[in-house]
Structures are given as structure tokens and as C-alpha cells.
Specification:
Layout lengths: L3 E2 L30 E3 L12 E3 L3 E5 L6 H14 L4 E4 L6 H6 L7 E4 L6 H11 L2 E4 L7 H14 L2 E5 L9 E13 L4 E14 L7 E6 L8 E3 L5 E3 L23 E3 L7
């Protein structure tokens, strides 16, 4: 199995376990004693208590407007920036530049690009070893595989972020991109600068109340940012939610961006 960090460091000839991972002295991470994992500030309003609850399963539903893969990966931004290890399973198209712009610390993210039929075993093993795992299962995962994955995350206190449609198990949090709009295009000229999305969060328990957010995903600078009604984008900054560095801010023109609604069409 080809397992490497997103930064390109291969883990050759080693089992996918925390004890063998390069550069880790305290596995499965520095946040093992906390109830939740921090996320980038623009994503916090979508989640109970503003973070990823340990032991939970988050489903990022696909099949609608574009932006679901970027959203799932952005959830790892704050986790990796806090020093914890993460993993991405079954996303062979993951780009290094895009991942870094979304806030991921590449040297703290493991990538198993193509686990094949072994995806449940790979994802479960990584949930034993890291704090958060983004996994894209086949289009119709078996209910038994889904149940075991949910149970593994709950038992180990890690977070499973499932990317795709047709997940047969109930999710603690379900994130859905309801609309996507690219900016920067004029009539016959211009180039894509940023994508404005509307994200809806539902779930159970503390996540039962519906939450909505309008986000740049990505923004003109490539980062995740919030969008307000007057066209102000506030970038995600360099740290997760909670005590730490204050998020950096950047503003677009006062009149707001020129937008072209592309609905559910996929671009790029």
C-alpha cells in the first residue's frame, strides 16, 4: 500500500500505525485529552461547540454543486495546524497547492490515494492512529462497513469525515453544499477568482438545529473565508478556533464581486 504524507514523504515498508509514523513522539496526537478538535474560524459556526467532536462521524454530502471535496479537506485545516495528525483516504486527485491553501499542514496529513477494496480496513486502521480521517468510500458502501467505521471512530475518540453520497449510517453532523457561485467572470472576459458557497449543517443531538454559512471556498487568495452581505471576505488565518492567533482579514472591493451562478455544474 502506498502511504505518504501530502508533502510527499513516503512511509515505506511500515505498517499504518502511530508507533511507526515519521516524526511522531506522542501518538495519536497532541489533542488526545480534549473533547473536540478545533477547526478554521470560518467553519466553526457550522459545528456544535465550534469544533469537531471526538468520536463523531461527519458526512459531507456530494452529488450537488461543487465544493464538497474542498469542504471536507478544509475541516482538517485546524486539526493539522494544532499539531495533530490527519489522513485522507480515497482522494487521488488531492493537490498539494490546493490543500495548503485550504489550511492543511501538509507534513501532518497522511494520504492513501487509492485503497481499493480495502478502504474500510485502511480507514479503520488510521482512525486508530490519527485524530481525523477524511475518507471517500465507494458510491454504495456496505452497511456493515459503515457501521464498523462509525463504531471505530466512537471507540477511539477520533473523527471520521465521510465524503460522498449514499452513506447508510446516520451522521452526527451532515454538511451539504446547497449553492455555488464563481466570481471574476465578466461578459466574455475575466478568470475565476473565488467560489462562494452556501453550506447547510444538520445532524442529531447538539447538531439538530440547522445552521447555515456563506463561505469563500476557496477565496481569491485560495483560503477559506466567510462572506458577508456587503462583499467582505475574512480569511481563515493561520490557526484553529479557540485561543491562539487572531484570524487575518482581507477585503474585496466595496461594491462586491462580479458573480456568475453556475448552479450544479462542476468547474475544474
Amino acid at each position: 500500500m502506498d502511504v505518504r504524507t501530502v508533502a510527499g514523504e513516503a512511509v515505506a515498508g511500515q505498517a499504518v500505525t502511530g508507533a511507526n509514523w515519521p516524526g511522531t513522539a506522542n501518538w495519536p496526537g497532541t489533542l488526545a485529552g480534549e473533547r473536540r478538535l478545533g477547526v478554521l474560524a470560518p467553519l466553526a459556526p457550522l459545528l456544535p461547540e465550534g469544533g469537531l467532536q471526538r468520536g463523531s462521524t461527519v458526512v459531507v454530502a456530494s452529488g450537488g454543486p461543487p465544493g464538497t471535496t474542498a469542504l471536507a479537506l478544509a475541516l482538517l485545516g485546524g486539526v493539522s495546524q494544532a499539531g495533530s495528525w490527519c489522513a485522507v483516504v480515497g482522494v487521488p486527485t488531492l493537490g498539494v497547492v490546493a490543500a495548503a491553501q485550504l489550511g492543511l499542514r501538509l507534513e501532518r496529513v497522511a494520504l492513501v490515494a487509492d485503497p481499493g477494496k480495502e478502504w474500510p480496513t485502511v480507514a479503520a486502521t488510521l482512525l486508530d492512529s490519527v485524530d481525523a480521517v477524511v475518507v471517500r468510500p465507494p458510491s454504495h458502501p456496505r452497511p456493515g462497513d459503515a457501521r464498523r467505521l462509525v463504531a471505530r471512530a466512537r471507540e477511539r475518540g477520533s473523527v471520521a469525515v465521510v465524503l460522498g453520497a449514499g452513506w447508510p449510517e446516520r451522521a452526527d453532523v451532515r454538511l451539504t453544499v446547497r449553492a455555488a457561485t464563481w466570481t471574476g467572470l465578466g461578459v466574455g472576459h475575466g478568470h475565476l477568482q473565488g467560489r462562494l458557497v452556501e453550506v447547510v449543517a444538520t445532524g442529531r443531538g447538539a447538531a439538530a438545529r440547522e445552521r447555515r454559512a456563506r463561505l469563500w471556498l476557496p477565496g481569491p487568495a485560495g483560503a477559506v473565508a466567510v462572506f458577508d452581505e456587503v462583499g467582505t471576505g475574512r480569511t481563515a488565518g493561520t490557526g484553529p478556533t479557540g485561543p491562539g492567533p487572531t484570524a487575518a482579514t482581507g477585503r474585496t472591493a466595496a461594491t462586491g464581486p462580479m458573480v456568475v451562478d453556475i448552479g450544479a455544474r462542476r468547474v475544474g
